[in-house]
Inverse folding.
């Protein structure tokens, strides 16, 4: 078992080979799997999986690993353990690490009854899946259009991309209304930024992605007219974009505008002949249209039948 002193607890033994990241041995770290890229920034929103353990206990007293999609948490707001915040600031995307937090950096002298006894050192295993730096984006969006114009285009594109990433994350959590708000913020930034001719293609490419996101989000919000509007704006930028044609077709189908739906979907199929989603939507359209025609026939038949009934009378 190595050369550890007799009578040492498991956490004391573990702490001997851990890195001191606070300088007072209050937060100790052991990297299990290295991450990559930049360190987590102050004020970032993080996507993490974590489990907290007490010494001599196999099961965690706190964990979010059972969640299918962990929620995004903002440093300084959603994360209340000081040790966890300091630990996260030492991590990179994809990193998995084990931390020991002394009471000062965890639950203090009082603990958190009945789960956490007073003056308890706790162990946390944390996996950093991703993080988004919202501080830069929030600060930039609060500026006036004139102030934003003082910054280079690359800054605007970066902030718009961050807003879109936030939207994508919220969309994956089925928070479609919140996702729409983020996408609209990104679109507003790109709309009000004028770019020199040689850089306009960069703005158009960024706009196209956001417009496609908005079209899909409005379909999820069951607002097909808005979905069609943003899909058509995307087609102004790229008239052969299969995704935009598909979204417009879906929107028209929901609005029972069958001929328009067919026109969009046939064009989408022309661009991507083997796309299952497009082909399935065309089958759905054919089925809906058959039902619609059958109902129209039935209605006409009833009208004429009732007319016949009315005309049968005395001769």
């Amino acid at each position: 078992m190595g050369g550890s002193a007799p009578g040492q607890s498991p956490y004391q033994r573990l702490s001997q080979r851990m890195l001191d990241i606070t300088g007072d041995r209050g937060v100790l770290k052991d990297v299990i799997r290295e991450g990559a890229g930049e360190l987590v920034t102050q004020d970032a929103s993080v996507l993490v999986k974590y489990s907290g353990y007490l010494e001599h206990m196999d099961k965690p007293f706190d964990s979010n690993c059972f969640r299918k999609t962990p929620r995004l948490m903002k440093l300084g707001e959603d994360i209340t353990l000081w040790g966890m915040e300091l630990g996260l600031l030492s991590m990179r995307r994809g990193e998995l690490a084990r931390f020991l937090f002394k009471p000062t950096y965890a639950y203090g002298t009082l603990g958190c009854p009945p789960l956490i006894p007073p003056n308890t050192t706790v162990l946390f295993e944390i996996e950093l899946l991703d993080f988004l730096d919202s501080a830069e984006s929030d600060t930039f969006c609060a500026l006036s259009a004139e102030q934003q114009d003082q910054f280079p285009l690359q800054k605007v594109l970066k902030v718009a991309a961050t807003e879109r990433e936030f939207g994508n994350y919220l969309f994956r959590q089925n928070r479609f209304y919140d996702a729409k708000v983020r996408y609209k913020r990104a679109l507003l930034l790109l709309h009000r930024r004028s770019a020199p001719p040689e850089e306009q293609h960069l703005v158009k490419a960024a706009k196209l992605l956001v417009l496609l996101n908005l079209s899909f989000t409005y379909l999820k919000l069951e607002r097909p007219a808005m979905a069609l509007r943003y899909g058509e704006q995307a087609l102004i930028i790229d008239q052969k974009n299969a995704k935009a044609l598909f979204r417009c077709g879906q929107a028209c189908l929901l609005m029972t505008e069958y001929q328009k739906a067919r026109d969009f979907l046939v064009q989408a199929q022309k661009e991507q002949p083997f796309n299952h989603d497009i082909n399935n939507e065309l089958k759905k359209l054919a089925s809906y249209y058959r039902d619609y025609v059958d109902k129209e026939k039935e209605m006409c038949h009833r009208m004429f039948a009732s007319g016949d009934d009315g005309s049968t009378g005395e001769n």
The CA atoms of residues 4 and 12 lie 9 Å apart. Residues 310-315 have pLDDT under 50 and may be disordered. The longest helix spans residues 276-311. Strands lie at 19-20, 27-33, 36-39, 45-54, 62-63, 73-74, 92-93, 96-101, 122-132.
